[in-house]
Task: structure prediction
Amino acid sequence: MIGYDRRMIDAAGLRVMKAIADEGSFTSAANALGFTQPAISQMVRRLEQRTGTVLVERYGRQVRLTEAGQVLARHAVGVLAALDAAEEEITAIAGLRAGRVRLQAFPSSSATLVPRTLAILKARHPDITVTFTEAEPPESLAALRNGDCDVAVAFAYEGGDLGELEEDLSLLVTRRLMDDEVRLVVPTTHPHAHDEAASLADFSGEEWIAGCPRCRGHLLSLADTAGFRPNVAFETEDYVAQLGLVTAGLGVALVPDLILNAAKHDEVAALPLSPASRRQILAVTTPDLQRVPAVAAALDALCEAAGSDPKVSPAELVGAKA
Amino acid sequence: MIGYDRRMIDAAGLRVMKAIADEGSFTSAANALGFTQPAISQMVRRLEQRTGTVLVERYGRQVRLTEAGQVLARHAVGVLAALDAAEEEITAIAGLRAGRVRLQAFPSSSATLVPRTLAILKARHPDITVTFTEAEPPESLAALRNGDCDVAVAFAYEGGDLGELEEDLSLLVTRRLMDDEVRLVVPTTHPHAHDEAASLADFSGEEWIAGCPRCRGHLLSLADTAGFRPNVAFETEDYVAQLGLVTAGLGVALVPDLILNAAKHDEVAALPLSPASRRQILAVTTPDLQRVPAVAAALDALCEAAGSDPKVSPAELVGAKA
DNA sequence: TGGTTTCCATAATGATCGGTTATGATCGCC
DNA sequence: GGCGATCATAACCGATCATTATGGAAACCA
Result:
């Protein structure tokens, strides 16, 4: 198929017709548009043969629009205005005078990281609208893949001591925001409460309080390495509840620093693990979205809120398969 | 000056963005528009680098519009609709389903020629709007030159027997509608009332009734050729009044056939002149307007109303200088 | 009236645009 | 793990759309 259904009127043509109508001659229309006179002359000729209509009446050395020509000049106003509006809207987005970022972050980051990010963003680019939704990494990444989200703040536990992440990050780009140390939280009355560090094997007999599914998986993985299978007595995704349970002496729990720094925990002891275990806090987006100004601004704000200088540690690593 | 202010958004681009939004993929957008897939791919790329903005988010093998892309797709609707409207209006004019003709004709043609023309036009193209104004040739031609008129119906006396016309017809095209024989009108009581033909010199002693300035000029010219200077006793542009004056025996007059065929004139005799004198009835327009469908239709109708087959006698002679 | 100016038209030229076909890379699916 | 669908890229090609240079005709003016 040849597929030659070329439209007979285009925006450029309309603009020329309007200029002729306004200026009254080809020459001054050309000047007004920044073209030379023959350009207008040919443009009109092309338009006339495309429409199969006489658009301009040449009488002597003056030109006048025919009825058809006036029709085009009249429509030009609306079309060009709409085009300008579109262009303006685009440049507004490009210049961060407009735009939208849809952010999804996991619950425990909502406490400090996200509010700080939103504040930075608001101060720096007050005209872009930021949407925030709380979601665990599996859901936020799904939303990202699905096009319902621009930036996902996720976390990934390190498997053993190698930085292998358990999510499927193919096709996505990640930006490392911070490392979040995981600590063992025990009641202050616990015999090991004042140790320098905690070796997990020493707590194999405890009752355990587990968090979200992935956190629970991480606990099981660490315990397995330490050679035991933890007795999980309680499960709750609410870290404040976890700390409450520990305070009440109902068990011990693994809690990341990000939580401990945000929530009050006077009546529990948070011991560093030995060997240490961390999770990475990551900002995730797609290669294309990364180049959208509003998204880029959000990523920068996230890095800044996380304390890592966005200029120094872009740390863009494309994740390998899970 | 280089004058490179090329607009960053054009109608074609908008159409492509809208197609992508509607179809959900480059390939089906290409099918919908009758293009191949790479055409869409490149079009998007060009648009993106012209706007300096990411318009499409490629994730895996699916594509989605970014916010900026959605902006374009949204504006596309209005712009394309306006463009279609303009196009439709043009083709309506081209197809005589719309359009306008502004006709100006000299008074004595209003009697028969113009009404017949309007009737033909109305029957044949009921959707075009015809405007009619009565005006003597100098004014109607001025209107034509001025752009206030599309077709002027004028008359031109032949100077002597050569077809030299006294109007400035440069830059205009004329279409000969009919030849109008000029007769000498005398009261039926006149001694020469029943002659076969009238030799002008025989009436040098009469009192004359003159018409419009150009008709008066024609009378003077003919009389001059016949060797006398007519005694013009009355002047009126109203031919009916002229006939009335002749009937009352107040003088003689030169009256063209066009009038005699339309007005009652029982009580006067209309003698052919010897040598004969004619005036040409002409339709005048500009070369460009001539090609406008509605104008062409009007010209055809005029020819038909005048009794000359428009197909056989186009008689397009570009007038020389006066 | 005849020269000058001021228009528009045309020709020759070149860059870019905007399509094509052919081909490659990659994701998702069975 | 091949296969099909999808987008990207390369090479090519014609039409578009601008340029400069030039011509002709109309209007203007002394």
The longest helix of chain A spans residues 67-94.
